[in-house]
Each structure stands twice: as C-alpha cells, then as structure tokens.
C-alpha cells in the first residue's frame, strides 16, 4: 500500500517537473529544441505511467501458475509484483469445477516428488478436494508375450507410485493457492504480441527493463520475463532462442473410458512397430487412455464409432496383436536370487489380466508428438520453463513433472538471488537455474527417446532383447527399485544417486 | 577517544574548504535529500543527478592521504568495463554473490535483522569505500540499505551513476565525507586496502567515520605464497582473468597484520572467512581457508 502511494507521489512530482520544463521551453521562441524536449517529456511521462512488474509470467498454465504460487509462498520472494499474461478464460476466478462431470481426458500423472513440491506451497490440499487417483501398481508388457514387468510401490517402501489428476484440477488448485497467498499479482487476460529487450536511451527512466507489448496495445515493463507458454512458445521465439528436436511420426489419442471394476494399477503395453497403449486410473470406475500411433491410424480411430473404438481399445490392451505373457513366478528357487539381496515384493507377482473396457466416457482428442529442447533456457531478462524449454513423448508421464521441477527450481534460484541483492534478470543468476535443470531434463529426455526408439522396431533380435529387458527389470530388484525411484522423481539421475 | 581526537584535528582542515567552495553547502543539502528519496527501483529520480562535487582545493594540504596515484591510474584506464560481466572485472562479478552472502549473514546478526526478509537492511546507512562501478553497492541497496559509494576515480562514479540511476555517489577521499556528518551504520572496504598507500592510516580513517558499535567489513588478499601463485600468476598471467599488474603482492596483507592494524584503529575483528574457487563448477564458496582471499568483519570498540 505504502509502496503504491510513494510511487504515485513520485509520479506526480515527475509529471510536475516535466510540465515545468515544457512550460519553460514554451515561453521562449518556438525552436526545434523546445519541441524535442516537450516530446521527450511527453514520452517519459507516458512511459513512466506504464506498470512495472518484477516478474512477468507469460503463460498461465499449470507450470506458470506453479511458479507464481511458489514465488508467492516463499518469504524472500513474496513481495515480488508478478504479472500473469494468459488469455485463457479458465484463469478468471469464479469458474469452479463441477464434481459430477466425467473425468476430462487431459490428465497428468503426478510423481511423489511433484506432490511433495505441491505440499510445500500448500496447493495439494486443493487437489485432494477434487477427483484424484493414487495408484500403487504398474504393469508393463509388450505384444510378443515374451516378458512383463510389474512394479509395486512397496518395492521402494512407499504407499503409492503416483497420482493421476486432471489438468484442470491441478490448474485450479494452483490458482486457488495463489489467490489465497495474498501476494501482489495481476492477471492480464491477453496475448503477448511483442517484446523489447534492448535497453532504451539513457534519458528513459526504464533503462534496462524488458518491455512487453500485449494484444490490446497496452504495454508493461518487467525485470524478468518467464516463458511458460508451451511448446510453441512465443517468448522463446521473440527472445531468439533456438531449439533442437524432431517430430515423432506419431499422434496420441487421449480419452476417458469406463470399466467394470475399480482400477488402481497403471497399465502400459507396447504394440508392434511403435504404438504404445497406456491406461491410467483417474478415479471411480474411470480410466484415461493415452494411445500413441501413426497419424493415419489416429485419424481413423478418432472418427470411428464409439462401439468400434471400445473394441479396438480392448484389443490393444489385451486380446489383440499377440499372446499374453506367461506368469513368471519362480517362488523360492529364483534364478536371480543369488544376485539380489532382497527380492522386491512384485518380483513374484503373476501377470495380471487388464480390466475390460466397457464404454467410452469422453470425446477423443488427438495430439501430434515431438521432441524439442531449447538450446538455452535463459538469456538476459528471459527464462524458459516447462514445455517452452522441453517437450517430450508422453510414454512415461514425465513431461509436466519436469515442468514443475523447473518452476520450483527457478523460484529457489530467484530467492537465492534476492537474498544477496542480485538483479533477478541477470544472466548469471538465470544460468544457475539452467545448470540445475538442464542436465536432469536432458537425461530424462534421452532415456524417453531411447525407449521410444527401442520399441519402434519389430525385429526378431530386438524383440528378444526387449523381453530380456522386461525379465531383468522384473527380477533384478535393485534395478527395479532404481527405476521406480527415478520415475518417481526421488533421484535426479538414474543409477548414480 | 582516538576518533574524536582525529576528528578534532581534521575539522579545521575541512572547514575552510567547505566555506570557500559554494556548491558544498548545496551538496550537503542535496545529499540529505537524496538519502531520503533513495529507494532502489521504486521511484525514478525526480530530476537528473546533480554533478559530482569537486574536491576541495585544500585536499593537497593533507599530510596523509590514502590515495595512491599509480593505483588510481590503473583503475581509471579500465573504468568502462566495470559492468561487463565478461570483461576484466569478471572475477569480481563471479565472486560477488558469495561475498554478499557473508556480508548479509554478518550484518543481519549484527543489527538483529531477520535474514529471511528480502530487504533486511531497510533504514540502515552504509558506505562503500572504493565502490568502483558499484558492483557491491547496488545489491546492498536492493537489500534496503541507503548506500553511499565513495571512489577516488571520477570515471568510476560516473559509470556507477549511469548503471544505478538511483542513488547518489560522491567523489573524493574519505576526508571529504567527514563534514557531511552522516555516520554510517556499516563501512565496506572490499578489495581496496591492497591498493592504498598506507593501510594503517586507511584503517584509522575508516574507524574515524564509524560510531562505537558500528560494523566494518574489509576484504583483501592474503600475502602468502599460495596467493602469489593463484591470484597473481594464475589469475593475471595464465587464465588472464585480470589485467597483468592489477595486484602487487607486496601490498597484500596477512590476516594477522590486518587484525593488528584494525585493533590499533579501535576496531576488533569478530569473524573472518575465506573464499575458495572450485574450478570444476566455476563457483566461489565461503570457507575457513583464509589462505588466498579473505574477508574480515569487525566492530568499533565502545569507548
């Protein structure tokens, strides 16, 4: 409050001084010097009327809001004046989630590490008020029927492997958390049209700030611009940051389906020549399907009737493409028992038959898949987080978890910077965030891409190798524990932590 | 007692200076005015910054001055590059956050401020002696302090003013500051004492400015073989982080010498820490190793 009044007082003084200058010059004979001074004074006056924010988050999606929440909750950063630029109407408060609606097909798997971050900022309690589904088992197998792997949370002495939550629930929880924090933030329900990072002339009082122009012609200044605007990031484009990556020749179909029994397991089956089928529980008797396939097949399957689609789904999940793997339960005389010190609980699990899908419960949505990674996450006054920095294949449910990791890491780095009085837009500070997140993100992306390629080829020796990999993961308990810990976000790097 | 004696001796020397040059009174008034309106980034300066005051003509009659002309020339030559994070001052920029972390924790404890607050030094007055381009002064101002930067090289002050635009910097040596009658809560002399003509006298001047109980922070390089190898041979000739000849090994002080000099100037050193560089990560960190770079935090003895 005091701060705004001081600013207003200064504005008035500044305006008065500028007015005084123009009056003085107007009294003399009209000369080019006088009019230039008047023009500069006018420009200065109008420029100094533009709002100045500390942080401008472009993109108010899940990751952008996670950053805003985190900044609002930490004592070192909660004084920051944050602007959120997003034209999505879901951000206007007053839109509540109707619990009787069927689950939205857009869901995310929240790893335990992300859940811990949410709990730190106090947003998890809002998630728990809405539909969410914990799962403690996961079964992965392929069409050849040569092997399968079952993971259980008890292998790593945990209760759950993850939690599947609708994106709109995550988003609304973060929004509620931000609104409750009482920090200074302002929503601009507009799009970003352009950005000026060059320092203005020395006479301008807003020398080295970034100037953002919005779609309605208004502008604002910010010390730091955060690009959280997704894989087609406008901020990345305007900042001139290039990326590396390639398109996967695959689309993903997502939808919600209903089945007879409750489901507390995540199912993933690799199909011939690339497609992957995943079934994730979302709560009650609903589950979410993420089915990646060739673009022509995806268009085909999107347009077929519901009944046909459900039949295709059951084929993909269970009775089509190949046999079911035989249950491997060696009991006490396990071949690998001399290697392992302590066998994981799930090592002796039998292959479980997946649930039969009865009905389609939502529309089918299709998305193209690609891999993209920004060559650098930060330049002066600009930083990228979430999908703007990296886009991955959805096969392991890691994409948004990497994004949340980025958001919380960036807020920690900003807090450290503010503690020592740094300018939050300084490249050296933002590079620390990049150094923290880039290796972790790149490793995960490499692994996911490796899996994607490994399961794309239907070739005899590869199939055997893959089967061996399944067997290995199923029976080598230390390896299994490592895989689970890494996928849960507990370790930043596989194998070495 | 000693500080008052020095002040009494020096005041007659400063008085004719401030009476003879007209702008001095205006400067004092301007200075106080600027002190009140100086909040980093909250408000633009209402008017363009007044020009730096010229030093009193009688500066030359002082028998002792801490200024070392050769050192001043060295720094004047590279003034424009102060804020170039990749330029000759890169090591200072890289080391800055670590140094600020130490300063922050010492001063929060000294003044009893909450370290988790984003502006813990609100309402405190600091003086940064030998501020250069303002690399230390700006972050301290962002932490809430009213900072005055003092530097003997005028170009440095201009660079600092251009970069900060939000606070006042005065030129000249410490003696000029005396008649402004603004006792700082804390004095910072970071990487300065190895460039002055007479360190003992410099410390006495610093001490004269603070009140008893005031804090002083001095950082410099140890006069050790390791420091010769790293700060001079490696930094100046091998890695070329600094221009050759920036530091003169014989003007470095050992921690014991610094403590002794400060004690003679009635400042007792409370804490000392060293900075070590990790070449693998490229980061500086605080440590107990005062073999090369070190920083000392002291308080003025109560009289």
Automatic annotation (TrEMBL), chain A:
Domain FAD-binding positions? 54-318, 363-442
Q: Where is this region: Disordered?
A: 27-48
Q: Which Pfam families match?
A: FAD_binding_3
Q: What membrane topology was assigned to this protein in its record?
A: Peripheral membrane protein
Organism superkingdom: Eukaryota
Under PROSITE patterns, the record lists: UBIH
CC terms in the record's Gene Ontology section = extrinsic component of mitochondrial inner membrane
Subcellular location(s) of the protein: Mitochondrion inner membrane
Name of the featured protein: Ubiquinone biosynthesis monooxygenase COQ6, mitochondrial
**Gene coding for it:** COQ6
